[in-house]
Amino acid sequence: MKSICEKAESRKIKAAVAYAGDGAAELLPVKAGDLIVVNGSGNALASGATSARLLRAWYEQDVQLYAHETLHAKVFVIGRTAFVGSANLSLRAYTDGTVEAAIQSTDAAIVSGARQFIDEMAANATEIDAAWLDWAEQVPVRTSGGPVLWNPNPPFEPNAPYDIWVGPEVDVGWTDEETALAQAGRRMHRVTGARGRYHTLAVSESATDESRLEQPDMVVLVRSRSVQLARFLEHRRRGRAAMGFYRTDRESVRRTLGEVAAALDSTPTMLREEEWVRVDSAQREALCDLFKLPKLQARSR
């Protein structure tokens, strides 16, 4: 880690590194425009392995920051040099207290591959903004220490301010390239163990910026007879469509079309025929109860 930090002086930094602790502010000379993806799960914050205070400081320096819930990689691109190893951004990794290893390469293909990996992690992560930081700073940090559990909670549930939308699934005819990107994103957000898997879907989206889905928004997907809860993944523009994914396993909460219609003071016919809409505060509360969603605040606009 020491060699990585020394190499970063006055060079552009791109990194996907699982944990970045408080001491990282004094180690890595980040600058405006640098891009860093970290593990921003609630457990990483609660253990202190990822520091909300550090991320706030970097955010105020105009560093591009992303929170990935299952990241455990340590990949850096410093200028035209790639580093892939075991060290996190921490004082312990910087000093001789632990044995770390890394491969350093200036090979153009390897550097390009590392840069692409980091970009893919960012594309399938939550962009860290002021609202996300407000949430992260409220996570109590354990003082007893202990190991950091990798992705202990299903990443399907939102852990930052989010909106809820209701609407029908649409058939947009993804290209092979778009489908491949969706599958890559789905693997990054996989359910751990053998509890289930994610499937990719498309939802109709309004053309206005005010009606755009953003991570980690949820979509109550209306089908002919039932309703499936889906999470927005990313924009794959094809007409008026956005891409999302849903989970199929025994822990998924499923509801009938009638139950959802009643919660929204609507009818099954109206839900099937209308384009999707962002729900209001009363509808949001009813859907949170119905689908057992975290009662976090709505995304600021």
End-to-end C-alpha gap: 39 Å
Q: What portion of residues is helical? A: 25-40%
Number of domains: 2
Q: What are the secondary-structure elements, in order, as H or E?
A: HEEHHEEEHEHEHEHEEEEEHHEH
Gyration radius, to the nearest Å?
20 Å
**Structural class determined from secondary elements:** alpha+beta
| CATH class descriptor name of the largest domain | Alpha Beta
Number of strands: 14
Looking at the overall shape, the CATH architecture of the largest domain is: 2-Layer Sandwich
In brief, what are we looking at here?
The chain is an alpha+beta fold and 301 residues long.
Notes on the structure:
- The chain is an alpha+beta fold.
- The protein has two domains: 2-136, Endonuclease Chain A (Endonuclease, Chain A), CATH 3.30.870; 164-291, no CATH class.
- 28% of the residues lie in helices and 24% in strands.
- It is built from ten helices and 14 strands.
- The strands form two sheets. The chain has a seven-stranded mixed β-sheet with strand order 6-5-4-1-2-3-7, with helices on both faces. Strands 8, 9, 10, 11, 12, 13 and 14 form a seven-stranded mixed β-sheet that branches.
- The chain is elongated.
